[in-house]
Amino acid sequence: MSKGGLNSLNSLISLNSRPGPPQKFCAVCGAAGDLWHYGDATVHRECAAFLPKPESAEPTAAYQATSAQPDGTGCQVEIIELPQAQRYRRVFAVLQMKCPALVPVERWHLAVEDGRRLLATWGTQAEALGWSSADLFGLHTPPDKPHATYNRLSRYDCTGLCWLLQGRPVVALTTNTAAIENPDTGSITTYRKHNKPALGPLGDSLDDLK
Predict the structure, then answer these.
(1) Angle subtended at Cα 123 by Cα 58 and Cα 171, rounded to the nearest 5 degrees
(2) 76 and 53 part of one domain
(3) Residue partners of 70: CB distance under 8 A and separation at least 6
(4) 10-residue mean pLDDT series, the chain (210 residues)
(5) pLDDT of 209
(6) Range 149-159 burial, b when 16+ CB lie within 10 A, else e
(7) Same domain assignment for residues 117 and 62
(8) DSSP code of 167?
(9) Which residue range is the domain that position 68 belongs to?
(10) Residues 92 and 49 in one domain
């Protein structure tokens, strides 16, 4: 074989013997496969639940993941939640993910924005006063075969506070009530989380929020 041919063969062998990208393994179970990056850890999606949940005093991402593809591409999902009011974190994260069935999309968007503001301002106090996730974000459970005109928000007795704010701020909170200010008039409406009428608001319940 000529010297030139030998050099070409050696170059080919060197090219083919280059090491490939290092094999990645799940930080939880140690197996390879379709892995996702969760912060600094690379894990299977189903293993992510076993990772420790970091806490922070500042607003942070409740769920942030990027698919680990060989070419560096992938999808990213991010849901923002507030670290205040630990009691409501999971429910609020789910609420941001998808509009509940039989609820107008525009009301869902408003509820998410109102929920962020409410938890940022009153989340810790609401938790201390015993407000549940249902009190803040609850909705009526729809019937198996709802009528064409059925709307889950029409059942005021089962509707949580955030669905009724519609951009209006809460200015005071007690164990059983929330004071809601109407910026246009300066009037205050009282939301009562117990003993709400089934057919709609009465008296000062939520007339200003219609």
Answers:
(1) 115
(2) yes
(3) 21
(4) 52 47 74 73 72 48 47 52 68 89 93 93 92 93 88 88 95 94 91 71 36
(5) 35
(6) eeebbebbebb
(7) no
(8) T
(9) 22-81
(10) no
